[in-house]
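User: I'm preparing a small set of examples for a lab meeting where we compare how different chains pack in three dimensions. I only have the primary sequence for this one, and I'd like the structure in token form so I can line it up with the others. Please keep the answer compact; I'll paste it straight into my notes.
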Amino acid sequence: MTLASWLTSPLPDAAVEIAPERVSAAALSGRPGSLRVQAYAEEALPAGAVTARLGAQNIHDRSAVAAAVRAVLARVAQRPSRVALVVPDLVARVSLIRFERVPSRRDDLDRLVEWQVRKSAPFPIDEACVTYTPGRSGADGVELVALVARRDVIQEYEQACAEAGVHAGLVDTATFSVLNLVLASPGGAAGDGLIVHMRPEYTSIAIVRDGDLIFFRNRPEEDQESLTDVVHQSAMYYQDRLAGAGFARVLLGGSGRAAGALEQARHALEERLGMAVEAIDPTKTIALTDRISTSADLAAVLAPLAGMLVRCHHDRGAGRARRDRRPEAVRA
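Assistant: Understood. Below is the structure token output for the 332-residue chain.
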């Protein structure tokens, strides 16, 4: 679920998220199983400094973004040099690709995945960075989770970090980072789960089955369909096309454009789905230092950052390899 693999490099000093409204950062201490958020910080951005888009310029005021990155890192880490970077969902397109058989040669699989995503990419594939990771497998074949983003867009975010004096060695999207957090929580990977992640600019809906992503949809904020309608359509698809027998849990997190948007969404989803909707809570996966007080606003900021860092620590400890296409395209 990542835009780059960083398993052979040192762990990042911190995670940084660049979003249209803010830059935030967090740093962990401890080891897998006893990780703790030791510090976090956030800095508001000027209006228009960042606009998240798939096929157009995203960062319009790199100096302001770099200054915000520098400011938050100064509050969470001493002399940081390497960071893991979280970017908005809108900069990448997600595809779930099923193959009856997967080629044994890496190069053959790379070309096959690239050919598949070429059909849905709204820009030439030679301008893209493409990455994929194994998903669910069974008697009917293997599914891969693929992401495609414009190379120059990813580089905009990396260059803002570079101007702040740090190297962004790993890049992932906000909701995929949240999914990593949820799946790392106790029982988080068991059964079928519906995860709804809200941001002022978009909402992403993911369905996971025993830890594997089986459905993903991103709804831009300007979309005319209501969130409850989109979730209802997703739930119907889950039942009809994905052999869904019912969600073990439904989780909601993030933030909306208006105050109270998350709570309104929770009530609407509970009424539509007929079951309780849980909050995405980073403290179910990691601890916080005593000086950090929990709140819904804090959870919205921390969830992607913590998910990114938990994934880095987990992958390092497990030594798992990711299958990534053109990793050099998304490295500074």
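A couple of notes for your slides: The longest helix spans residues 296-318. Residues 32 and 318 are 10 Å apart (CA to CA).

User: Perfect, thanks.
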